[in-house]
Write a structure and sequence with these properties.
This protein is of the alpha/beta class. Helices cover 48% and strands 15% of the residues. The protein has eleven helices and 13 strands. Its main location: membrane.
């Protein structure tokens, strides 16, 4: 008690109690509590406003705070699931499409509309440099596979360019009347002035009419990037190229390359019908068995099997679609053999009858 009649109270340090903080508290209060003592009473832990318990060890959770915490957990889980869905449905498929993974290409190709009704003449125009390596690949590998075997129609320099027409007009006509433009990329192609106009026209059509370009990397062009035309560089950056593994590559790699090429080509009804016919012919042409039935049942040639190997040639030749011609030839040859055999037997019977007489 001071002179003014006011009562003073001592604020004790941690662990001190009593009027003059002369005693030591025996309670072990938690971090958010302080030891106190009632007047002439027991000791107790004085807790901060949001803690409770004998030693102030429990935090007080308001009911509204519980709901807010639950809501945040729900939002966090939903955001995580949404992120995974975006990753699975958008980012991963885009990456697979950009890298030309055949699985996603098949799915996209399945849902694509047919392109038969666009009044285009060819499925693809092939742009390449008339050098030995480039031309050999186009004429003896690409052209036979895509057109002769898979049934796509290609616009080729040597066959479809109009005589007497300017080169520029022929190129413009070829690109405008083709659904795709295939670029055979080599260092020689990049340095050629003749091919430059071709891919420039193709790029113009790509921007104007969504004309699609299929770059095929036949050889490494990394050393030619510095001298590459800006238009071609832009095409390579915006359109993923398909790398040819080489003629000496494994069969698996070659099959993957041709699958990517076929799935990059237009989806047309005629091509799908050709593929079905090709599959049926491949199943029936593995083992062709022909039985020659004799005339009047006197001669029988049975169990005569011929295996026909279907071979595609660049310049004409037999293709899988010519299977009917092969069957006709086999039957005709067998019929002739049967007739000759019958005539020989008849002749021997006549000679025998003459001798007996």
């Amino acid at each position: 008690m001071n002179g003014g009649g006011l009562q003073l109270e001592c604020e004790c340090d941690e662990g001190g109690i009593g009027d003059l903080c002369q005693n030591q508290c025996c309670l072990q209060c938690a971090e958010h509590g302080k030891c106190r003592q009632y007047i002439n009473g027991p000791e107790y832990c004085y807790c901060e406003y949001d803690y409770e318990g004998q030693f102030c060890e429990r935090k007080i959770i308001i009911e509204g705070q519980k709901k807010d915490t639950w809501y945040l957990w729900v939002v966090g889980v939903c955001a995580g699931v949404l992120g995974l869905l975006i990753l699975a449905l958008v980012i991963i498929p885009y990456w697979m499409w950009h890298n030309r993974v055949t699985v996603i290409m098949k799915i996209v190709h399945y849902f694509q509309p047919y392109e038969d009704d666009d009044e285009k003449t060819w499925d693809a125009f092939v742009s390449y440099k008339s050098a030995d390596v480039d031309q050999n690949f186009v004429l003896h590998t690409l052209f036979p596979k895509l057109e002769k075997e898979l049934g796509f129609t290609l616009c080729m320099h040597f066959r479809d360019f109009l005589p007497g027409e300017t080169i520029a007009n022929n190129i413009i006509n070829a690109v405008n009347n083709s659904r795709r433009t295939i670029l055979i990329l080599t260092p020689r192609y990049i340095e050629s002035e003749f091919t430059r106009f071709e891919y420039q026209v193709a790029q113009h059509e790509m921007l104007k009419r969504k004309h699609r370009i299929i770059p095929v990397l036949l050889e490494d062009i990394s050393d030619s990037m510095s001298s590459m035309d800006p238009n071609l560089r832009q095409i390579i950056k915006s359109v993923t190229y398909i790398e040819y593994p080489g003629s000496d590559a494994t069969e698996k790699k070659l099959n993957t390359f041709w699958k990517r090429m076929a799935l990059s080509m237009p989806k047309t009804r005629s091509t799908e019908e050709h593929q079905k016919l090709l599959d049926n012919n491949n199943k029936t042409s593995d083992n062709n068995s022909v039985n020659a039935i004799s005339v009047n049942g006197e001669v029988s040639v049975s169990n005569h099997k011929r295996e026909t190997e279907m071979t595609s040639f660049t310049n004409g030749g037999i293709t899988p679609i010519d299977n009917s011609e092969i069957n006709v030839k086999i039957i005709e040859e067998t019929s002739v053999a049967s007739k000759n055999l019958k005539n020989n037997i008849d002749g021997e019977l006549c000679n025998k009858a003459f001798i007996d007489d």
